């Protein structure tokens, strides 16, 4: 028996004992384990499962053990994920701290910062949000104006962030702030701010989908201790870029599967609405539209796989993240447009009688999908990046 | 073909534009939505619409209307579309008046048209039974009983169904779903026994309802048009409504385009007005062409109705399909070009996009009308 | 009987006597009446018909009689065109002189120039071509470099023109030349050059369609008398713009009808290739593609009509020419792409056996259509013009 | 799934790239065209191709080939596509070798494969009878006569038909046009009595012919594969050929894209490099995405063939359709972005565009493969 085999056996046993039964069922959105000070656990098993996993550092399996991570090798993590998949375990912790901030801290933070913040993230104690965009700095992120003035032992922060995800439910925010107004990219710093501090206020933004996953966050004379600066002063743009790449690939992943799946697949929806002849969609032009879309989707999926294979082989596809962000979100938007066409009036409900939950969810997801090509860098910005970085087309 | 508005029509347009812009701006729809209005429209606004003569715009003067004809109606609907004005105009002034004028007996006309023109009676067309518009697929049964009929069945996507006084119900008196023959229309009191109406809350915050008919008895006089031969009368009125819908849709497309263009001229990123970016310029220019192409198609379809041309059905399908395609593109681009702010409920882009998708499904989507256009073209 | 009625009667009688029978039949391309010094008349009636019409000035019916034109009113011209249509008369003269240069001369030329050149055009004696574009000045037409130096009694012209239509068969060329190198638009003049002059050489350009309707025209130390300048020195750009508008509307007109018509219509081609069920195209997705295209085409046709109606009513559609040029040529390209799809392998011939004449013509026309969105101002230039002139979007 | 080339495959690609770029540039096709070459290919080039082992790339070593498999063949075809290299590779090394390997008896393999690998024998597939690819619609008759068959009928769009030594003829031994059963394949000497071959001059200046069969007698041994059951053998070989075609097409798309990108970086208008115009930048970036998406689809299809995966037909249809769409867009944009010069025969854009439309029709256009993709997907 290899070391990996015994790791698998041990893991399997541990999971059997430590993963509550209710955590092996599909997860409703309200039971998502975001953690944090304000966390509510409608199902207490959620907290148990999070704590159990965190105790082994397995909420962040590959982070170093010294900071509370699992310290697993790639192979071990693969085994862990397979075993989690085998029992259909829910994620133990979903968090921007895990996905975004943690990796940045591991790369750029001081030893003290890593010690303090990584453990809180791993244990789900602190819920983080991201303070990047501003009303006047969307696509032009580096045009941000939120100012952090050096006041000796602290920075005095003033400004307004926007599109901060769930800021009203978060504990801390990682922010890009301007520490030098005389230059653009080189005057930006990366700052961690406790949202309990005086002067921080988050107001939810109502979206066209009816949901409010984002906030405007106002920072008024907020005093931030100097030790909350990550990396060097005025070098925050380097960290920001790294995080953005990560965000782009997260969002482009949205291009796969969701939406039609809940309705039994695009083909099923088409057959239900336009009839079937044998196993075929009865209306051949609808059939071609479905096939056309499925081809695009499969082609995109294959491209994601190819990028993975090339990355493994040490080859880069070049600005892959921008391409995936652009193409993935555009395919996703087209998918929902097609789905709406197929579902007809049943995709036009907002709430109440006449529509079932899945149908209402499609309508909201269709609206939500429109944001995919805007958030995390618009499609236009991605095309600019491809043109410049990959194709080498000159600036005007 | 009237591609240029007459002086009278221009005055009507200007009047309608001023009225909707000032009295029924998009804020009016927001208010109805946010205050969860039970009616889904503003009765004061409706009163003003009636006073302006818009409710009876299709109705001849002898029945109390203004007799402006389809062109006049289309002009008003387009201006209503520019501000997403919620009112019974479509269900009552377009569909109700249109159907009764096309199929009604003298008695029915005398009884109903003056009340429509005066705003007293609201109507709704109970037609759809499936997720996609297809009148011939009507299955709901109307059986002869005594000298009247008994109606049984379910209707959905009945625009303004829960505020209507009179329902115009399409049901089958013979034949099976798919047959052109055997369709009949009935005027049914919305409060009649056996009629139950459930309001549906739609994505566009406008009115629609599901209506069930359980052994609803109507008298012989309730029959609107010929027994079993409603298809022709229905289709001609539906074509009128399709073109008026296209007008409303193009109005929406214009607002989205104008608003987006303004935003391109005002929003700064990277230190410059984003309207200076050539990629956005070209896309804006393409949207402009779409709007212009649609103006022509709409005016042609309204002229066809006005002049009772033989090719009216084809012109109507062209208008509904072509404007539908343009509106989809323009609303999608409107949101995208606004960026993040376009995704918020604070600006109007989302409201227009939601309305556009409902309009797309009303009386046949692009797929339906493209097929019909080919059918009518003989290929 | 009104004056117009008697004009109609008189015209009808005259045409009956003066339009040869063979000129009332469809015109093969080789019998097109371009006129000029090098003209060949495979059918001698062509020349007779041209001369007869020219004798009354009816090759240019609305031009003033004093210059040899017909001097007809709009109403009279309408009657003339109706009567010509009634007997299916061929055009008596097709010429860039008539379509482009003539109207410019009427507006901008001196009395002497009008006297000399308009008559020659009307009588089909001189065939004109247009010397606008240069290898380095395509979309940026005003960037032209062909130089005309003032040498006292003449200009010395040096440079190269490109895309000069049929220059190898033409007698004279109207040229934009640079008379001031210190400014851009305001250093351009409009010059008439006899192609028999020493130093003028036209070389046909072979196109992808196999045809050579255009030439490169080299101007080497060509001496052009000063009286050949039209309008003011350095004010040629005004004349050029006027001519360009005219060219754009000519090309956008290409969007209507041709191509599929020769094959019996798009529907017929679809039925022939994909079968018919009853009177319907058997393949519903092909059917939708055909309908979609025909809708676009009808919509464009209606827009042309609307523009005409608005122009009559004294309303402008605003930059209508640019919109028509853009949309018309794009629709035309799509038409040929669809036609090729429908015809399958029968649209893939170049010459010789296996393909009939109409099929070969479709293939060549498809290739030719690609140039529509380039010549007379590219689609990109048209979109720029719309964005700037109509939409008022600012320059960078 | 092999999304990354092995070291061996990378070497093969580099070798092929060098060879086609240096020895068979686009100028080679121009020369064949302008000199009105009767063969339509360059025999010296073919000799070199054979020497490099490309003619036998699919053929096992025991039959004199190099046994590189479908992935190797695809790699070579893509490089050939980059320079529009005209050669019998497709008709002989892809279709001929593929069909004989899939359906041939040991005798047929021994007789033909070594000659294909050595470049001695050229083959051509005589399949198409109508304007659109559809193997099941084959109507041409092969009747039993004695212990052989008599062939009667007309074939068209036979690639390399007029230079082939051996024709592989698809004909019907039973059933009617449309039936999957009843198709058989025959090896027919191109010089046999009753065979008449007419070369067709195609828009892409490449080889195609019409072939008539008038009472052509063949012996029983001429039957390739099973009697009446050729459909399955044919389809698997056609899928191989479709993917190789997609490879050739993607090679063409790459050249057009690269050339256009270079032009954008070099051409000046309005005093600036046109590649600085954002509208062109965005369009170029979109074309880049198309090329990348197509790389994935192609590599997956080649892997499917290599690994004999069950979903090979679907992967093949995806590749042919998706690359076809991309190539159409890219060739159209290539001409447009080149402007006037793109319309002239002096640059290569037109040649690639012409070739693209012929490739689109070879073995099924996007419409055909989209339908097939749905068929195979069970919807």
> Could you say which structural class the secondary elements and strand pairing of chain A correspond to?
alpha+beta
Tell me what portion of residues of chain A adopts beta-strand conformation. 15-25%
What spatial form of chain B do the alpha-carbon principal axes imply? globular
| Overall domain count of chain A | 3
Q: Which class of the largest domain in chain A in CATH terms?
A: Mainly Alpha
Q: How many strands in all of chain B?
A: 10
Number of helices of chain A: 11
Fourth CATH level, the homologous superfamily of the largest domain in chain B: Butyryl-CoA Dehydrogenase, subunit A, domain 3
Distance between the termini of chain A: 63 Å
Tally of separate helices of chain B: 11
Outline:
The complex is a heterotetramer, with two copies of chain A (396 residues) and two copies of chain B (379 residues). Chain A is an alpha+beta fold and 396 residues long.
Description:
The complex is a heterotetramer, with 2 copies of chain A (396 residues) and 2 copies of chain B (379 residues). Chain A has 396 residues and is α+β, with helices and mostly antiparallel strands. Chain A has 3 domains: 3-122, Butyryl-Coa Dehydrogenase, subunit A, domain 1, CATH 1.10.540; 128-241, Butyryl-CoA Dehydrogenase, subunit A, domain 2 (Beta Barrel), CATH 2.40.110.10; 253-390, Butyryl-CoA Dehydrogenase, subunit A, domain 3, CATH 1.20.140. In chain A, 43% of the residues lie in helices and 15% in strands. Chain A has helices spanning 3-18, 45-55, 74-86, 96-108, 111-122, 236-252, 266-274, 284-312, 320-343, 357-369, 379-390, and strands at residues 128-131, 147-150, 154-165, 172-178, 188-194, 200-205, 214-225, 229-230, 276-277, 280-281, 349-351. In chain A, the strands form 3 sheets. Chain A has a 4-stranded mixed beta sheet. In chain A, strands 2-3-7-6 form a 4-stranded antiparallel beta sheet, with no helix packed on it. In chain A, strand 6 and strand 7 form a beta hairpin. The longest helix of chain A is centred in the C-terminal third of the chain and has 29 residues, at 284-312. Chain A is globular, with a radius of gyration of 23 Å. The N and C termini of chain A lie far apart (63 Å). The model of chain A has no long low-confidence stretch (mean pLDDT 92). With 379 residues, chain B is α+β, with helices and mostly antiparallel strands. Chain B folds into 3 domains: 7-121, Acyl-CoA dehydrogenase/oxidase, N-terminal domain (Butyryl-Coa Dehydrogenase, subunit A, domain 1); 124-228, Butyryl-CoA Dehydrogenase, subunit A, domain 2 (Beta Barrel), CATH 2.40.110.10; 231-376, Butyryl-CoA Dehydrogenase, subunit A, domain 3. Chain B has 11 helices and 10 strands. Chain B has helices at 7-23, 26-34, 43-51, 69-82, 89-103, 106-117, 230-266, 278-306, 312-338, 349-361, 366-377, and strands at residues 123-126, 141-145, 148-158, 166-172, 183-189, 195-202, 207-218, 223-224, 268-269, 272-273. In chain B, the strands form 3 sheets. A 4-stranded mixed beta sheet of chain B has the order 1-4-5-8, with helices on one face. Chain B has a 4-stranded antiparallel beta sheet with strand order 2-3-7-6, with no helix packed on it. A two-stranded antiparallel ribbon of chain B has the order 9-10. In chain B, helix 4 (69-82) packs antiparallel against helix 8. The longest helix of chain B has 37 residues, at 230-266. Chains in contact: A-B, A-C, A-D, B-C, B-D, C-D. Chains A and B meet through helix 9, strand 11 and helix 11 of A and strand 6, strand 9, helix 9 and helix 10 of B. Strand 11 (349-351) of chain C pairs antiparallel with strand 6 (195-202) of chain D.
């Amino acid at each position: 028996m290899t070391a990996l085999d015994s790791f698998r056996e041990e893991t399997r046993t541990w999971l059997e004992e430590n993963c509550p039964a209710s955590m092996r069922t599909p997860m409703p959105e309200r039971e998502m384990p975001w953690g944090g000070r304000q966390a509510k656990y409608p199902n207490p098993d959620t907290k148990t499962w999070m704590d159990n996993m965190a105790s082994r550092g397995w909420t962040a399996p590959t982070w170093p053990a010294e900071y509370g991570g699992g310290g697993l090798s790639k192979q071990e993590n693969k085994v862990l994920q397979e075993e989690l998949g085998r029992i259909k375990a829910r994620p133990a912790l979903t968090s921007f701290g895990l996905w975004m901030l943690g990796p940045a801290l591991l790369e750029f933070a001081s030893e003290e910062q890593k010690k303090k913040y990584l453990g809180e993230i791993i244990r789900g104690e602190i819920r983080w949000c991201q303070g990047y965009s501003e009303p006047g700095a969307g696509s032009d992120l580096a045009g941000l104006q939120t100012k952090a003035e050096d006041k000796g032992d602290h920075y005095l922060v003033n400004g307004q962030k926007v599109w901060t995800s769930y800021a009203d439910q978060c504990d801390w925010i990682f922010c890009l702030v301007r520490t030098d107004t005389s230059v653009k990219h080189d005057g930006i710093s990366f700052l961690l701010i406790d949202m309990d501090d005086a002067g921080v206020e988050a107001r939810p933004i109502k979206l066209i989908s009816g949901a409010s996953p984002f906030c405007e966050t106002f920072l008024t004379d907020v005093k931030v201790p100097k030790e909350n600066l990550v990396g060097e002063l005025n070098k925050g743009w380097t960290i920001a870029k790294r995080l953005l790449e990560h965000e782009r690939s997260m969002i482009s992943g949205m291009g796969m599967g969701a939406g039609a799946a809940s309705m039994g697949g695009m083909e099923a929806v088409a057959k239900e609405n336009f009839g079937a002849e044998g196993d075929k969609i009865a209306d051949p032009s609808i059939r071609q539209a479905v096939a056309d879309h499925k081809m695009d989707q499969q082609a995109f999926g294959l491209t994601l796989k190819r990028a993975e294979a090339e990355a493994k082989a040490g080859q880069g596809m070049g600005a892959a993240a921008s391409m995936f962000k652009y193409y993935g979100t555009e395919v996703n938007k087209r998918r929902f447009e097609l789905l709406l066409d197929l579902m007809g009036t049943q995709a036009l409900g907002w709430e109440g009688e006449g529509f079932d939950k899945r149908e209402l969810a499609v309508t909201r997801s269709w609206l939500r999908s429109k944001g995919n090509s805007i958030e995390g860098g618009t499609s236009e910005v991605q095309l600019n990046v491809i043109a410049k970085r990959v194709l080498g087309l000159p600036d005007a | 073909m009237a591609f240029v508005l007459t002086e009278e029509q221009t005055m009507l347009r200007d009047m309608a534009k001023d009225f909707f812009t000032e009295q029924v701006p998009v804020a009016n729809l927001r208010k109805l939505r946010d205050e969860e209005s039970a009616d889904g429209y503003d009765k004061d606004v409706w009163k003003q619409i009636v006073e302006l003569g818009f409710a009876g715009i299709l109705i001849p003067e002898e029945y109390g209307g203004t007799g402006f004809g389809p062109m006049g109606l289309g002009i008003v609907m387009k201006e209503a579309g520019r501000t997403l004005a919620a009112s019974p105009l479509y269900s009552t002034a377009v569909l109700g008046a249109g159907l009764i004028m096309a199929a009604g007996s003298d008695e029915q006309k005398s009884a109903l048209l003056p009340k429509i023109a005066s705003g007293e009676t609201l109507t709704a067309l109970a037609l759809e039974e499936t997720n996609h518009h297809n009148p011939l697929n009507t299955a709901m049964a109307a059986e002869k009983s005594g000298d009247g009929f008994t109606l049984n069945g379910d209707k959905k996507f009945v625009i303004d169904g829960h505020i209507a006084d009179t329902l115009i119900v399409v049901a089958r008196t013979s034949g099976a779903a798919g047959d052109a023959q055997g369709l009949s229309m009935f005027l049914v009191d919305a409060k009649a026994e056996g009629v139950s109406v459930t309001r549906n809350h739609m994505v566009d915050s406008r009115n629609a309802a599901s209506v069930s008919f359980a052994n609803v008895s109507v008298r012989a006089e309730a029959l609107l048009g010929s027994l079993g031969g409603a298809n022709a009368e229905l289709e001609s009125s539906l074509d009128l409504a399709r073109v008026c819908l296209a007008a409303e849709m193009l109005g929406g497309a214009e607002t989205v385009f104008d608003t987006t263009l303004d935003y391109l001229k005002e929003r700064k990123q990277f230190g410059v007005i984003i309207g200076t970016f050539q990629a956005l310029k070209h896309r804006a220019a393409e949207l402009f062409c779409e709007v212009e192409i649609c103006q022509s198609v709409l005016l042609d379809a309204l002229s066809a109705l006005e002049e009772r041309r033989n090719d009216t059905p084809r012109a109507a399908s062209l208008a509904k399909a072509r404007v539908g395609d343009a509106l989809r593109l323009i609303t999608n681009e409107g949101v995208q070009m606004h960026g993040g702010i376009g995704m918020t409920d604070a600006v109007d882009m989302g409201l227009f996009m939601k309305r556009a998708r409902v309009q797309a499904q009303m009386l046949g989507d692009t797929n339906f009308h493209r097929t019909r256009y080919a059918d009518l073209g003989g290929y």
